[in-house]
Amino acid sequence: MSGNTPTVDALHALVVEDEDIVRDLMSEFLSAIGVKNISLAANGREGLEILRDDSKRIDVVFCDLHMPEMDGIEMIRRAASLDRRPALVIVSVAHEALLSTVSDMARSRGMHVLEWVVKPITRERMEDILTEYCGVLANTAVEKSQGFLFAPNENDFTTALDRGEFLLHYQPIVSAVTGEAEAVEALIRWNHNVHGLLWPSAFVPDAAGCGAIGAITDRAIDLAIRQCADWNAQDHRTRISVNLDSSTLRDRNSPQRIAALGKSAGIGADQIILEITESIVAGDGAEDALAVLRELRDAGFSIAIDDFGTSYSELSGISSLPFDVMKIDRALTMNCVGDETARSIVASGVALAHNLGMKVVAEGVESDDEIKLVKQLGVDSLQGFILARPMPAESVPDWVANRPAAK
């Protein structure tokens, strides 16, 4: 919003819809509700350009999914990496299960999803959504003014880095065939001196917004490599998977810096898996990101595409990217038992990955039925709370030693 008062007339809204009649009708609805600043886009590519325009300062997006050039799912994924992310309303003729899956995906990336609506959307529904959103904004403004809302800034992150407050927890990844632990994923945590142990959703969006995420990623890589060396010394050799952010991936010095950390700790590149999302190697800075990826892979690091399956564009574009591992998005894994569409996407992804010589990890498995189905679909590895929750480093060796064989 341009002002301090959270009212509907102060909102800047964007409608991303490929059908002219529907787009114009939604614009008329917004005007009737009282929204004065309305932008329109015919596809995800146009919508993303508007979101990247700082002069627009979009507060809320009404987004279709099935559109030409760039679909809504891909636009949402890329919008999630922007410094300023709008609230989101998904409006589509798609099946409710897919709308729910896309909403989960958007939320997992830090997007504020207000609602998903099966077309057609009415003026009354749009008004209810925006009125409720303004109420949330009003409460948030009060919380901020009273100091109740945790919103760290660059100085907070710098202090936390200096104090060594960031640490890693590790979630095991196991073989779908033998049940044995194959690797662990390193997950950043902030042991805040006031708020206690914070998960990424509580601070990563703010870190990305103020430019501190690169330094935090570097710290996570350093901690993971040092932990890998400690485990090697204890005769507990395992691979560690670490997430890379967009700023690290677009820094042409990253390969040398990461390789130097491994060399200093006596860790070979073959023990490190670097995870990225596909949206990082698309759009602005894609050329640098691809160059860094290829250099890291040439140095012996394995590269994993994280959260696969939430974009219609991925199946056609993944073959040109230097990936060794495909990680199926947790929203798809959770929905594949009861949703034929999700199941088909997983099956197609597994087939593609295997044809390209990639291994496949199903993320977010939370039930025996999910494990049984993704095994039938051909995944190679499993990761999820039903197997193991993220744990401190000292708990990993005991968990591995006591891990029962696969059923």
Rg measurement, Å: 22 Å
- Strand percentage lies at 15-25%
Global structural class:
alpha/beta
| Form type | globular
What's the count of strands?
14
Mean pLDDT: 87
Order of helices and strands: EHEHEHEHEHHEEEHHEHHEHEHEHHEHEH
Give the domain tally. Answer: 2
Number of helices: 16
- Strand line-up across the major sheet: 6-7-9-10-11-12-13-14
Q: Key terms for this structure?
A:
alpha/beta; Rossmann fold; TIM Barrel; 20% strand
What does this structure look like?
- The protein has 407 residues and is an alpha/beta fold.
- It has two domains: 8-145, 3-Layer(aba) Sandwich (Rossmann fold); 154-401, TIM Barrel, CATH 3.20.20.
- The protein has helices at 20-33, 44-52, 72-79, 96-108, 123-145, 154-163, 204-210, 213-233, 246-249, 254-265, 286-298, 314-317, 330-335, 340-355, 368-376, 396-401; strands at 12-16, 37-41, 60-63, 87-92, 112-118, 166-175, 181-192, 196-198, 239-243, 272-277, 302-308, 325-328, 359-362, 381-382.
- The strands form two sheets. An eight-stranded mixed β-barrel has the order 6-7-9-10-11-12-13-14, surrounded by four helices.
- Helix 2 (44-52) runs parallel beside helix 3.
- The longest helix is centred in the N-terminal third of the chain and has 23 residues, at 123-145.
- It is globular, with a radius of gyration of 22 Å.
- The model has no long low-confidence stretch (mean pLDDT 87).
